[in-house]
Amino acid sequence: MRTLGIDPAIRSTGYAILEGDHSSARALDYGVITIPPRIPQSGALEAICTHTRNLIEKWKPDEVAIEGIIYVQSHRTAISMGAARAAPLIAAAQFGLTVYEYSPKKVKKAIVGKGTADKNQVAFMIRALLGLSETPPSDAADAMAIALAHLQASDPRRATILDRRKV
Amino acid sequence: MRTLGIDPAIRSTGYAILEGDHSSARALDYGVITIPPRIPQSGALEAICTHTRNLIEKWKPDEVAIEGIIYVQSHRTAISMGAARAAPLIAAAQFGLTVYEYSPKKVKKAIVGKGTADKNQVAFMIRALLGLSETPPSDAADAMAIALAHLQASDPRRATILDRRKV
What we know:
The structure is a homodimer.
Chain A: E1 2-7, E2 12-20, E3 25-34, H1 41-59, E4 63-67, H2 75-94, E5 99-102, H3 104-111, H4 119-130, H5 138-152, H6 156-161, E6 165-166
Parallel strand pairs in A: 1-4, 4-5
Antiparallel strand pairs in A: 1-2, 2-3, 5-6
């Protein structure tokens, strides 16, 4: 199965294309969609949507996995995160792809073994698990962790533990 | 000037196409984009985006005006509202249209004369101001109020009072 993992944020969205199953996986592509502050919010969201569409056209993933939002400092942040999350959801729906959401805490628990792992620990573990020759940027590592959790969830017991839901 | 006004929400997005200037306006089209609960969130957002694109293609507005989010009960609501707001922003940016945001309170103050006006009062006043033969659905009336405020804001003094900002 081929999965597109997304860790969305208005100015810095991590993405990853992973192929494999619940026991093994390899990274085909990963990176960070960076939008400079001079671009207004509407243009930034459109750019994330277009980038996601391009990734889907190029890599033809079977499904999409995205990080759920659990904790936010303020309503302002929540609104901005909700908007950033909408852009890849729209791109996925345009291609008729199903999107699954995972709690960031459960993804970290599954991948690093600790729900409170920090960004460096996730990047370090992802590098080891996928045999990458470099430590990935942390937003891309988060996207790979989500995609990896989604591949693990092809085992139904893991899907329950990971508390996944369709969005 | 022709303006597309949008009052976004995941399941019920009001829209309005108004033409005019700061002193007079008429409604060319208005309505509510309703998405049934059986459609997942990603499909709902995609549908709002596509509907907005269709409206832009049909009516060719010069600018887009959208309601800002001021008060929300919970982070969950804020995330959902942020997502709903992203869909028309993406559609507008795809056509290179500038989007202006207005505070709902200031729009009500400008149109009804009272920042705390309820939905019925807005719909009643919009019907009178635009000479409509029916009382519009409240979500459509909100979108017309935003579009009307935007036309008023073509007078720079009004733009300042309305506290508008580009998004």
